[in-house]
Amino acid sequence: MIKILVTLFLVLAMSACSEPSHLGSDGNYVAGVHYRELATPIPASGDDISVTEFFWYGCPHCELFEKPLHKWQQTMADGVVLVQSPAVWNEAMKLHAKVFFIVQQMPDKQKIHAALFNEIVGLREITDLDEQQAKLSDFLAGYGLSEQAFNDKLNSADIISKLKQAMLLMSSAGIQGTPTILVNGRYIILNESANSAEQVMDIASYLVELERQNLLAM
């Protein structure tokens, strides 16, 4: 069974002009209200501060979140990287995650990535994974990837390794819904505390700076 999605449906329906909720006395976002800190932070894989979005192509609210997410990406300071990581709770989502990693190796990856949300939302009622796989193969053939190349990549050691890494990251972070933002393996943003998708990204900016200060103090 697909887990209940923690979506931005209510957040996006609320006015972006509303006052931020429950700010601290210093005007900053508050742990336990706007974000939670992992009991065991996930070690960073590099020197950059990572902002990871866990998403699923079959989640319409993840598609809605794409525009504010990538708009925010354009404002990121040097030393901050955005990572999109597919959520996986069942076999269908494993297939969708593998498709994501295949697309990341293609020349038109951004265009294909955007189109895949609508494509996979339309496949959610198809329970036969072989049928889903065939339709996704046809879809990617439209972008120049042959059926043979698709099937070869789908079962390649590289793609399977990336899938395992994504599942391990999701498990380590305790992700239970999409879209969810994880800042540098340490902070999870609580979507329900925000008044808009843009405020979710404002919380991300605050946590990036908080993490930067933490790292400087070490």
From TrEMBL:
<dbReference type="GO" id="GO:0042597">
    <property type="term" value="C:periplasmic space"/>
</dbReference>
<feature type="disulfide bond" description="Redox-active">
    <location>
        <begin position="59"/>
        <end position="62"/>
    </location>
</feature>
<dbReference type="InterPro" id="IPR050824">
    <property type="entry name" value="Thiol_disulfide_DsbA"/>
</dbReference>
<protein>
    <recommendedName>
        <fullName>Thiol:disulfide interchange protein</fullName>
    </recommendedName>
</protein>
<feature type="domain" description="Thioredoxin-like fold">
    <location>
        <begin position="50"/>
        <end position="197"/>
    </location>
</feature>
<comment type="similarity">
    <text>Belongs to the thioredoxin family.</text>
</comment>
<dbReference type="InterPro" id="IPR012336">
    <property type="entry name" value="Thioredoxin-like_fold"/>
</dbReference>
<dbReference type="InterPro" id="IPR036249">
    <property type="entry name" value="Thioredoxin-like_sf"/>
</dbReference>
<keyword id="KW-0732">Signal</keyword>
<keyword id="KW-0676">Redox-active center</keyword>
<dbReference type="InterPro" id="IPR017937">
    <property type="entry name" value="Thioredoxin_CS"/>
</dbReference>
<dbReference type="Pfam" id="PF13462">
    <property type="entry name" value="Thioredoxin_4"/>
</dbReference>
<keyword id="KW-0574">Periplasm</keyword>
<feature type="signal peptide">
    <location>
        <begin position="1"/>
        <end position="18"/>
    </location>
</feature>
<dbReference type="InterPro" id="IPR023205">
    <property type="entry name" value="DsbA/DsbL"/>
</dbReference>
<keyword id="KW-1015">Disulfide bond</keyword>
